[in-house]
Write a sequence for this structure.
């Protein structure tokens, strides 16, 4: 992967037809840069980057959501020396607007529901992919004692579910931009092949753990399929990812106290859903 400690090289700017001084943007692991109305970021996998660009170049937007469109290089390619380019979209994230995030995410998922499963998902190896596999019993639970304290009761609450999978966005709250007069914009697509209600449960779990949402948000979206089980899997995903990403520093970065009350709510919701 291209280093995130320096901006895009001059030859990358030229290849995308850009001039000017790149300005680093907040977020994006410190590696996202803007030049005029174009955003440049290092690829985290060539196959995934090309798939995302080809998909978002043609996806049909609606009054419910926008997406950034990819910028091709002069030779028509989507990737130059490990860098990808996107049209900047207006707006800022607002993680307090979780219901609007979920509505925009739902519309986006409806627009991409026809897509086949991309092959790069099988080869992807990173903490987030690991956490996803643990959540869906495709990898064993392991981790620190603090992580296991949260993961074990969640694992005990899991029950089989039978929902269709499709391509989804697994990291919505901070990646939905709001601007006056236009639909929310979905950015930085983190693709997974899971039920839509799982992706929305991840957004709700994030809002509860990190963004100050009240427990009423659980009830507002409890009509979604297998809601309790999706919440359980959403939390397993986030907690297993935390341990894999931060190792011995996991507690300092995301303490158990942020998760513990939400774990209890999810387990209660899962128990209510048992027929």
């Amino acid at each position: 992967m291209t280093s995130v400690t320096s901006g895009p090289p001059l030859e990358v700017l030229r290849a995308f037809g850009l001039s000017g001084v790149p300005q680093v943007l907040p977020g994006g692991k410190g590696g996202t840069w803007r030049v005029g109305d174009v955003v440049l970021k290092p690829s985290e996998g060539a196959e995934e980057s090309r798939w995302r660009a080809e998909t978002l170049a043609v996806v049909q937007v609606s009054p419910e959501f926008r997406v950034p469109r990819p910028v091709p290089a002069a030779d028509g390619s989507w990737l130059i020396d490990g860098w990808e380019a996107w049209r900047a979209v207006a707006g800022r994230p607002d993680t307090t607007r979780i219901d609007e995030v979920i509505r925009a995410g739902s519309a986006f998922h409806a627009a991409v529901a026809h897509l086949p499963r991309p092959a790069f998902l099988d080869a992807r190896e990173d903490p987030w992919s690991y956490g996803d596999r643990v959540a869906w019993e495709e990898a064993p639970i392991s981790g620190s004692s603090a992580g296991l304290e949260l993961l074990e009761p969640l694992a005990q609450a899991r029950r089989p579910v039978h929902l269709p999978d499709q391509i989804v966005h697994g990291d919505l709250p901070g990646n939905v931009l709001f601007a006056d007069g236009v639909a929310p914009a979905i950015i930085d697509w983190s693709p997974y092949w899971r039920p839509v209600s799982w992706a929305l449960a991840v957004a709700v779990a994030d809002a509860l753990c990190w963004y100050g949402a009240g427990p009423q948000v659980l009830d507002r979206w409890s009509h979604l399929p297998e809601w309790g089980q999706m919440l359980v899997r959403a939390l397993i995903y986030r907690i297993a990812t935390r341990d894999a990403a931060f190792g011995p520093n996991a507690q300092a970065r995301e303490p158990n106290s942020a998760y513990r009350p939400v774990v209890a709510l999810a387990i209660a919701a899962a128990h209510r859903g048992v027929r």
Notes: The mean pLDDT is 94. The domain at 10-88 is CATH 3.30.200.20 (Phosphorylase Kinase; domain 1). The two ends are 47 Å apart (CA to CA). The beta strands are 23-24, 33-35, 38-42, 83-87, 92-93, 166-169, 176-178, 185-186, 191-194.
